[in-house]
Amino acid sequence: MATPGPVTPEAPFEPSQPPVIEGFSPSVYSTSESFKEKFLRKTRENPMVPIGCLGTAAALTYGLYCFHRGQSQRSQLMMRTRIAAQGFTVVAILMGLAASTMKSRP
């Protein structure tokens, strides 16, 4: 049998620091951006998602208001509208993902 060569000690594992991977940068952006800057950038990249979210919230709010007032027909209509707005938002997210994937291809 062959004797194993000398073992070099590895650096101790430090859980508070991210691992160093050669050729990989964990951040695409060179500077950190605030919540407002990131929100505005994402809204500019895919403006249909916030519109869908606002539509969903509006339909839900008005539907709950109608339910509270006892207008069950209108409340049911608004809950169905909310589902449609949620579907629109999901489709907008998927279309935005597809567009960003196509844009990043060489």
From TrEMBL:
<dbReference type="InterPro" id="IPR050355">
    <property type="entry name" value="RCF1"/>
</dbReference>
<feature type="region of interest" description="Disordered">
    <location>
        <begin position="1"/>
        <end position="20"/>
    </location>
</feature>
<dbReference type="InterPro" id="IPR007667">
    <property type="entry name" value="Hypoxia_induced_domain"/>
</dbReference>
<keyword id="KW-0472">Membrane</keyword>
<dbReference type="GO" id="GO:0031966">
    <property type="term" value="C:mitochondrial membrane"/>
</dbReference>
<dbReference type="GO" id="GO:0097250">
    <property type="term" value="P:mitochondrial respirasome assembly"/>
</dbReference>
<dbReference type="Pfam" id="PF04588">
    <property type="entry name" value="HIG_1_N"/>
</dbReference>
<keyword id="KW-0812">Transmembrane</keyword>
<feature type="transmembrane region" description="Helical">
    <location>
        <begin position="83"/>
        <end position="102"/>
    </location>
</feature>
<feature type="transmembrane region" description="Helical">
    <location>
        <begin position="48"/>
        <end position="67"/>
    </location>
</feature>
<keyword id="KW-1133">Transmembrane helix</keyword>
<protein>
    <recommendedName>
        <fullName>HIG1 domain-containing protein</fullName>
    </recommendedName>
</protein>
<feature type="domain" description="HIG1">
    <location>
        <begin position="20"/>
        <end position="106"/>
    </location>
</feature>
